[in-house]
Amino acid sequence: MKQAPKHPVRLERQGNVSLIVIENPPVNALGAAVRRGIAAALNAALSNDKTDAVVIAANGRTFPVGADIREFDMAPQQPSLSQLCSLVEDARKPVIAAIQGTALGGGLELAMAAHYRIASKDARMGLPEIKLGTLPGAGGTQRLPRLIGPELALDMMLTGSQVSAGIAAEMGLIDLVTSNDLRAEAVAFARSVKEPRPTSQNRTHLSDGSAYMATVAARRAQVKMELGADALAPNKIIDCVESALLLPVETGLQVERSAFEDCIASRESAGLRHAFFAERAAAKFPEAAEAKPEPVDRIAIVGGGLMGSGIAIAALQSGFAVTLVEQGESGVNAALERIGAFYERSVAKGRLSEAQGAAALTHLQLTNKLDGLGEADLIIEAVAEDFDLKAGILSEIGSLAKPDAVIATNTSYLDLAALAATTGRAANTIGLHFFAPAQSNALVEIGVHDTASPQAVMTGLGFVRALGKTAVRARVHAGFGSGYIGNAILEAYRHAADLMLEDGATPAQIDGAMRSFGFRLGPYQVADMSGLDIAYARRKSKPRDPEARYVEIADKMVEQGWLGQKSGRGYYIYIDGQRQGVPNGDVLKLIAEHRAKLGITPRKFTDRDIRDRILLAIVNAGARLLGEGVAARPSDIDTVMIHGFGYPRGRGGPMMDADATTPSIIASRLSILAPEEPTLWGAAPVLTMLAQERQKFADLNTA
After folding, report:
1. In this predicted structure, what is the pLDDT of residue 409?
2. Which family, according to the similarity comment (predicted)?
3. Measured between alpha carbons, how far is 503 from 596 in angstroms, rounded to an integer?
4. Least buried of 231, 251, 413, 653, by fewest C-beta within 10 Å?
């Protein structure tokens, strides 16, 4: 990574205009050194009699994208961003912000504090603080309503979405959009303005008080209905905008500061910030020290089922040329129908125009022959999860692929090293474990076996990033039965749930407890959606520990033909293809008979019991993943759970959640963790479990 210069801010002059130039790569974050530099440069420019106006600009690809989030958990450093913005707004000479790339969060707050704003045509702006469980804390909640009105301001802050420079100009956020040299245009613009124009003095958009108060009330009601009355950050944002309508700006800024501090201190914001840093930590692969990604233009996918078609859609959406190979003419037609249906739905819902959908399909080549694989830079095998089938396909791929092509298998639990060996070029073979549905799920686990080359791993990582997905490295090696991080966690999650199901809980109760915890769906709803036969085949193909407690309920359901949504009946009954089922009374009867046969007296579980036992199972599995070296860091497990399984993002992930909520996790690092690992990557480095807590879960695993 390019190092920041010693002085991340410098002052330049172009005649009667002073330029404050920020250079703090990679994203010009507004850390303490940058803030001090801007303040010093501004004071110097204002004290120079030859300066008539000041332009704030940035080198590199972007205007500041925000504050340095790491400072949120540190002692305050002067000047704060709020103080800097006040200094800019109070300047006695015009200050112009020149925006390129993105101006996000604190970067946009700095721009709004300037008296005028000019942006390059391709620039984008936004206030995404809501995604970190907080709000703009440097005057953004007070200045944005004054620039664009309360309604549009609430839209931007409550969604965290970005707007283009053109839209921003229409809204009144930007004064001028240019496709010419931004710096030159900004200097020319600065020479054309004579007086400062403090944003805080602008009440043009706040004049219709009664109508805007009605808007505020409507938004508050909407947030309560959709997110609940205790949704902290959204309600605080509404409070702040209401303050902008009713109070002097000085008082509104005090309300904003108090609201910001409340949000930062919240558990949700801590969890969201942890998730933010966890994703960035996951992107740091050790192979980066030895290799860089090779360019990938054309990919090939062998297997056009649900997974293969989903991967093809994701690649087409990202601009790749795709060759999709499926067996026989009927298989090719089925794959084309799946992909075509996706684009038809996308057009019908307004996500794509007909022209965009048609254009994407022009980059797709469908065939039932493997001989076209030699043109692909990356070949992904995505056939059914059967070792012999995959090994045969991979052997053919290895014989046809060009010498420098990377080969990937989408296996989720088969022996990756053994499959890689069948290609005849194991070093060039990796795992790319997409999570379903591949076209929309953001997670891909990159499987790295012992002989995989850094070049192949980094090329796979580059491809996943180009898809806009989050990659997590999994060191997959012989002897670790679950293969990847996600599978090991899922098995532990489901096993804990199944034990409680056998001991007295119902599917609906367990699902309800996990939904109230924050999951969109409970484990048995997910099982019905995925198909019970898929997990059944996996269980039957793997050796089982004869000493471990095994719950046969799901097996008995499959043997009855109750496969979930695909058969209209699983843990729930689905009438006329409905996605929302009602509890299946026959399953409850089957469970009762099963308990009676085993001599189990049903016991009661509270929702808290259910949540705690599942969390404990997940954390135990996570500790094992770290001990085996499958996961590199605890936050990688959190990232997999958030993106792969819908773990509530506001909780930060199970490893952080356990540290934050389970007193039985002790604060000592496992020896496998590097001592220099920043604690920032995990509010809790993964910790060992107390013996008595291990015993609690062990008791559930004994017959």
Report:
1. 96
2. In the N-terminal section; belongs to the enoyl-CoA hydratase/isomerase family. Belongs to the enoyl-CoA hydratase/isomerase family.
3. 11
4. 251
Q: Are 147 and 125 a contacting pair, CB within 8 Å?
A: no
Does residue 694 surpass a pLDDT of 60?
no
Number of neighbouring beta carbons within 10 Å of residue 436: 15
Give the mean pLDDT of 192-207.
90
Query: To the nearest 10°, the Cα dihedral for 650, 656, 662, 666?
Result: -160
Mean pLDDT of the chain: 89
pLDDT one-digit tens code per residue, 51-75: 999 999 999 999 999 887 777 777 7
**Per-residue pLDDT tens over the stretch 479-533:** 554 568 998 899 889 999 999 999 999 999 999 999 999 999 999 999 998 889 8
Distance, in Å, from the CA atom of 529 to the CA atom of 521, rounded to the nearest integer, reads: 10
The catalytic residue among 23, 89, 109, 677 is 109
Closest CA to 401 of 298, 326, 291: 298
Match 């504090």 to its residue by tokens.
113
- Is 71 one of the catalytic residues? no
Q: Are 17 and 189 a contacting pair, CB within 8 Å?
A: no
Under 8 Å between Cβ of 702 and 549 = yes
For domain 9-264, give the fold: 2-enoyl-CoA Hydratase; Chain A, domain 1 (3.90.226)
- Catalytic residue from among 12, 71, 89, 129: 129
Q: What is the pTM of this model?
A: 0.85
Report residue 650 as tokens.
């506001």
Q: For strand 17-22 and strand 9-14, is the pairing parallel, antiparallel, or unpaired?
A: antiparallel
Closest CA to 662 of 647, 651, 646: 651
**Which residues does 383 contact at the CB level (< 8 Å), separation at least 6?**
302, 303, 305, 308, 389, 390, 393
Residue 109 is among the residues annotated as catalytic for this protein? yes
Give the HSE-up count for residue 159: Cα atoms under 13 Å, Cβ half-sphere.
11
CB 283 within 8 A of CB 472: no
> 316 — phi, psi (to 5°)?
-60, -40
Q: Where in the chain is the domain with CATH 1.10.1040.50?
A: 505-602
